[in-house]
Amino acid sequence: PGVPWRIFPPKPSHVTGIRAVRSGSFRMTQFKESGPGRVLASLWRWGVRSWLRRVEFVIACRDLERPPYEIPTRYRPEYDESERFMHGTGLDALPALSRQFDPRRLEHLRRCIERRDIDVQSRIDEDGTVWCYIMHGLKPMQDLEYGFAVPLREGHDVYIFDGWVHPEHRGRMVALLAQNDYHELRRGQGYRRAYVALRTQDVRSRRLHQRMDYVEVGRIRHTKVGPFRFNRVEFRPGLHPTEDPIGPVPAPSDSPVV
Length: 258
Fold this sequence. Notes:
Radius of gyration: 24 Å
Strand order of the largest sheet: 4-5-6-7-8-3-9-10
Number of helices: 5
Distance between the termini: 57 Å
Mean pLDDT: 82
Structural class: alpha+beta
Strand content: 25-35%
Order of helices and strands: EEHEEHHEEEHEHEE
Number of strands: 10
Shape: globular
């Protein structure tokens, strides 16, 4: 009693992985995950993340009237340019897809292919090698993992929610070719805008869509507390898809995705 409380660093322990370090004029403790301490820390992070989770997304939009992205010829993979790069994917493509994905992912693909409000486009070689695929919804749909929904105007907007490129074809502009093909397909069918939700931490994906002239038009804030999920979808003034009339898509230089 009466003695000021001080921090006395404990001795190094192989159980908790605690080590004493000197910082400035005082001593403090620092936890170093090693051995059983790493296991305990992993369990703690898993417990916190499973109970409380916050994720933020950028809602990006592209005016389909914009010209396609110009890909230098030297970077283009070899394929028959007289035909479309991507093709509609049906259940007959499941044997080829089963070579690339585990049963759980394959079941997800099968369900998406069977749905009428989802269109799956893919590039599959004659030998059955899957180059890539891209999925987009033609109607407002709920995200399977986070539960949010991006509003769309049917017959006017499309929503890209999944895509994949084979590891052997990454870095060869395959994703850009797939995007160009998809944009041209939907524009020819009368669609005017394409939307996508990108995680704010996914800088690589945001840079890819910025190259494709996508611009930020809104944000999604997802919060999970135990079994409950809360989503807040916000659009910039005049850019909500269901507004009538809806404002023009900003120029890429005015509202970049990154």
